[in-house]
From TrEMBL:
Name of this chain's protein: Polynucleotide 5'-hydroxyl-kinase GRC3
All residue ranges annotated as the Clp1 P-loop domain in the record: 138-342
Bias-annotated ranges (Low complexity): 1-13
Species annotation: Aureobasidium subglaciale (strain EXF-2481)
Keywords, sorted A to Z: ATP-binding, mRNA processing, Nucleotide-binding, Nucleus
UniProt-annotated location(s): Nucleus
Amino acid sequence: MSLLPGLSLSAPSTATPQPDAATHAPPRTEELSPRSELRFEVAFTKTYRVRLVRGTAELFGSELAPGTTYTFSGIKGAIFTWHGCTLELQGEVESEYVGSETEAMVEWLNVHGMLETARDDATMGRDGNGGPRVLVVGPDDSGKTSLLKCLTAWSLKMARTPTIVNTDPREGLLSIPGSLSAVTMGSMLDVEDGWGSSPVSGPTGVPVKTPLVYHFPFASPEDSPRMFKPLITRAALAVTSRLEEDDEAKQSGIIVDTPGSINQPKGGYDLLMHIISEFSINVVLTLGSERLYNDLLRKFGNPQSADDVVHVFRIAKSGGAVARDEGLMRQARQQQIKNYFFGDSRTSLNPHGQWWDFGDLTIYRAVDPTASHAQSHLMPGMDYDDSPSGQGSASILEKVLPSQEMVNAILSVKFCSGNSSADNVCDSCVMGFVYVAEVDEGRKKVRFLAPHPSRWGDRALVWGNWPEGVGDLVA
Ligand SMILES: Nc1ncnc2c1ncn2[C@@H]1O[C@H](COP(=O)(O)OP(=O)(O)OP(=O)(O)O)[C@@H](O)[C@H]1O
């Protein structure tokens, strides 16, 4: 167990998978015929090792290197082969079987081919608007992220640098849950890790990707559309201006992942339409819902001009995509947060303890529109209406003093100063996240756990209810 500098406490051990008897059992061999896949589920407490012995294989589009042992934990996934392969497997799994109904992969590869044609058009100057701007929609667990990973990995193989946008606060892309993030992919994805590593949480030994992160501290965009919409507008603006400075990235286009909750007909797909208009989406890929496909097809049936054309496609759902229960999703979120501060099985990070005086902190709390908030947390002399506009974010964020309630919470450190208006704080992107280890109301001090030793200076901090309580990270 490693000691945390400044905290003199041990890193939590629950994050580390325990060796099990099956790990020590001799490896077994599995032959996969062309276009079949090995589907497996591994618990968070177990490890599963896979080595490619012969042929070629990929996990959600990322190719396995021959002879390399990959270790998986807390994952449901599939190793697919186009031409057949032999795998060496070791460890204990919840389930493991070979699936041969993989027609969806062929269809997904065709979608990749279609996107490549659009990228070629952009490269040749036939489309001045740049590469395809793709939105992936469908119900929960329909395989949206898996499709997105395949399309990304295949485009990286073609030396493209697509920009990936995650609008699902339940899953952090290169960040923790509660984030909306965007990143231009400059290096291959990581077979074990999925999206790879970001420098947000500290140094790593592998090439990192630098995401642009916004804090959205609610489980679903529908919990606070007033906060979600401006953040999407901000993110789209930032991505668009970034692409204007980078021809390769502009030609490679954008792929946006969405949460299943906003793909429901209720509300007329208002949030979905907002994403489509802000990111100038021109290709929508629908998975797993005929109704959604037909509704969107109708919505975009009569474009007013060539710039308004949105192509809507119905894409086959992977036969292996499985529903994840809330318990598993919660475990995945906790693991992501622990990895953010302490690293994973390959990279060990040393988070730092920092004491801050109450007076040097400006903390905002995201107001849950469904709950009536205790006024007692408001700073003396303040009311909700503190934004310059007299409305806007004043009821979305409220200034609060540190309190015991904050212990074990995750706070975002914004790029803006503590003196910024509530609107600015809301829209500002995130430098990183910190964990509240202790609030000493007598000494008026807060002890934070931060990935970096350096202090963040005069920055606004935002506290939300999501992701839900992470428990005691330093016990
Ligand atoms: N072919 C497959 N074999 C085995 N597992 C798979 C396969 N495809 C997807 N999965 C798993 O199924 C689960 C759901 O897939 P995915 O995350 O892609 O769905 P989603 O639509 O993005 O879900 P959500 O909207 O909840 O984020 C994931 O755990 C994923 O790893």
